[in-house]
Amino acid sequence: MLKINNLNAKIENKSILNKFSLNINPGEVHAIMGPNGSGKSTLSNILSGKKGYEVTGDVVFDGSDLFKLETEERAHRGIFLAFQYPLEIPGVNTNIFLKTSLNAVRKARGEKELDAIEFLKLVKEKAKELKFDEEKLNRQLNVGFSGGEKKKNEILQMTILNPKLSILDETDSGLDIDALRIVADGVNSLRKENNSFLIITHYQRLLNYIKPDFVHVLMNGKIVKSGGAELAIELEKKGYESFS
Amino acid sequence: MRDKQIENLKEYKYGFSTDIDSIKAPKGLNENVIKFISNIKKEPKWLLEWRLKAYQRLKVLKEPDWQKPKYPKIDYQDLYYYSAPKSFKDKPKSLDELDPKLLETYKKLGIPLQEQKRLNGIAVDAVFDSVSVATTFKDTLTKQGIIFCSISEAIQKYPDLVKKYLGSVIPITDHYFATLNSAVFTDGSFVYIPPGVRCPMELSTYFRINASDTGQFERTLIIADRGSYVSYLEGCTAPMRDENQLHAANVELVALDDAEIKYSTVQNWYPGDKDGKGGIYNFVTKRGLCQGKNSKISWTQVETGSAITWKYPSCILKGDNSIGEFYSIAITNNHQKADTGTKMIHIGENTKSKIISKGISAGYSDMTYRGLVDISKNAKNSSNYTQCDSLLMGNKCGAHTVPYIKNKNSDSNIAHEATTSKISEDQLHYCQQRGLNSEDAVGLIVNGFCKEVLQQLPMEFAVEAQKLVGISLEGSVG
Question: Cβ contact (<8 Å) for A161 and B425?
Fold first, then answer.
């Protein structure tokens, strides 16, 4: 599904990722844990197609060279990033944004675009599952949403788009325990044979609800240790320092 | 040379009824040309005198030069002031002869083929839908006593109404371009809504029967009598082809007691090419008079075309409790320039005005919002709210806000808010990550920015205008 081989990334001449390699197979859940500044967000930015990085190395997604795909093409092929800081877009109705996004993706995949009624049915159902306040769907995208609501909105979009590879960039930070559970339920509902996840987090607690197949410790732009779910628990006890 | 022109004029004077295609006044601006126009339109004597008075005034007026966008000097003696509508001979024969880029834009806007042809003056065969629709509409309007026709027709059929109101809002002594228009205007729309009548449909230039080439000096007059209501749509979202570079129209609105006029414009004239060559100068004077108490005039404009847009649709709030509104979206891309805004002149007591202006500049373009709020001494207990937002795309364009505020009494209120922002890379990345391409992403963000104004547009205009906003900014993101 995703093969990252010797990825180096620089921004303004500062090296952030350093010979980073990772292999995610269909259906796997990988967690990447690391301290501030270890390169976690850079990884999600680069995978999603954000400009401004100087990048070398190979990344292959579903058989294609990822760097040859535009940001939106990556989305069309099934890469989804749940943003650490979801953006506010004033004046744009949340429902309309979701529908525009879904239909852009469906169109690119050669699927029939949904009309307003079909879309509303789908979004209502998904919002209900995530206990997402429906009234918010008629508000401007993320404007005036609390931190938790913004994160839930990301997960709502994820469940609607049903991506092959979901990258969750610190989706758990700023969530209370109830919201954390709801987010985890959203992820678990998408866990299927072919859907993979890359979960980027500081803390082990989210992993209590989403059980990862693999945990990687990222320090100074490089994976320093990989293991199973138990690695997260060890990390929580010993702290990052013991891995440096 | 001059003698020859006069010779030509004489010939035309007698020949015009036989060969309508070839009528053209000689180049240049003089009394003879004005007489020629008035004569060919069979105007009453008072109107010719009115035009000539405007022309006398024009001779002592100077072209204004305080605006931000500068343009090369116009040689007014080198222009044609009257030419009959072109025959189909001179126009493109089929859509294949048009610029493929234009056709692409039509496609994106979803303009039907027949309509694309009409816009470019291509002969349309057999039944022309809009004519039959228009006839049905006209019947409905006539039953209610509503007059909706060309101003030339109104001059013939309703001379008293025209005489009473023409120039009552924009006097012939006003300013250079308005006065020029009064001297040489060719055609335009006339609307009269009788007392207590609510016009049952949006009136649009599109449905005006016998719509001919109104030319570069269009004149529109709308009168809403006591307690009446009308919504008027002007323009078209599709790019308009036009041979004339200078457009100096005058639009006058009069609202009597308890009447309301809503005037919406979508302007998408040729903006010139990517390097700023060519394009229309749109120097329009639009002014509404809230003459009666409790009257209301609301201007909504979406300005995306023209090389230079220079206009200030204004309201004179004379009647007590009258309301003036101005909602504007102005978009400039490539080398386009706009200096636009409004004037709200408060004269009556308890008068209110609201200004919502959204300016978007991209490429190498330059945009100025210029607005006057003038609350006179007697306009007690009046208020104005102004919100003026600018959005910049890239770092080679400009946005300027120039508010003029005069408050001459102590119990009136003026509030002014202004913001300038840029479309952030992060917002674009977010939209693209959700599957939108960069142009759709820009369209979405900009439409969000303009939402308060788009909401004011009548339904059928709003959808097209939304698409237009996106299309106007094409190529503005790298």
Answer: no
The beta-carbon neighbor of A101 closest among B436, B448, B450 is: B436
What confidence tens digit (pLDDT) does each residue in A20-58 have? 999 999 999 999 999 888 999 999 999 999 989 999 999
- Measured CA distances, A74 to A29, A48, B282 (Å): 19, 7, 44
Q: How far apart are the first and last CA of chain A?
A: 30
Q: How far is B477 from chain A (nearest CA, A)?
A: 13
Question: Is A192 in CB contact (< 8 Å) with chain B?
Answer: no
Residues (pLDDT < 70) of chain A are 244
Q: Name the residue ranges covered by the structural domains of chain B.
A: 2-472
Identify the DSSP state of A103. Answer: H
Q: What's the mean per-residue pLDDT of chain B? A: 83
Nearest CA in chain A to B453: A91
Mean pLDDT of B433-460: 90
Domains of chain A are: 2-243 (3.40.50.300)
B396 touches chain A (CB under 8 A): no
Alpha helices, DSSP H only, in B120-222?
Answer: 129-143, 151-157, 159-165, 176-184
Residues in B closer than 8 angstroms to A80, CB to CB, are 433
What is the residue whose two structure tokens read 């005039």? B297
Interface touch B433/A75, C-beta < 8 Å: yes
CB of A101 within 8 Å of any CB in chain B? yes
Sheet holding A54-61, edge to edge: A14-24, A2-11, A54-61, A64-65
If one compares B20 and A160, the residue with the highest pLDDT of the two is A160
| ipTM given for this complex | 0.96
Nearest CA in chain B to A87: B427
Specify burial of residue A167 (Cβ count, 10 A radius: 0-12, 13-18, 19+). Answer: buried
Three-state DSSP at B361 gives strand
Instruction: Say which residues have a Cβ less than 8 Å from residue A152's Cβ, sequence separation at least 6.
Output: A130, A131, A132, A179, A182, A183
pTM for the full predicted model: 0.82
Among residues of chain B, what percentage have pLDDT more than 70? 79
Partnered with residue A190 across adjacent β-strands are none
User: Is pLDDT above 90 for B7?
Assistant: no
Chain A 42-71, residues with CB within 8 Å of chain B CB atoms: 48-52, 70-71
